[in-house]
Amino acid sequence: MSGIRDRGNAIILPRNRTMVGVFLSFVLGVCVPLDELPLEILARGDPDIVDLAIAFVSGMAAAYDS
User: Fold this and answer.
1) Which residue has the higher pLDDT, 5 or 63?
2) Which pTM does this prediction carry?
3) Where do the domains of the chain lie?
């Protein structure tokens, strides 16, 4: 019987951990106000052709490796 309980808890626990992580992320996001976003984050929202080229070359390297 204990083997069945252990398997049942193993299935339930990762879901609870995920919900706890989502909840804590939400609470921290609400509690820590960011008036201005850093330039690094703003730059990621507006990619240019250089970023596309880097992504393409990275994909080619990953495809070659596997």
Assistant:
1) 63
2) 0.40
3) 2-65
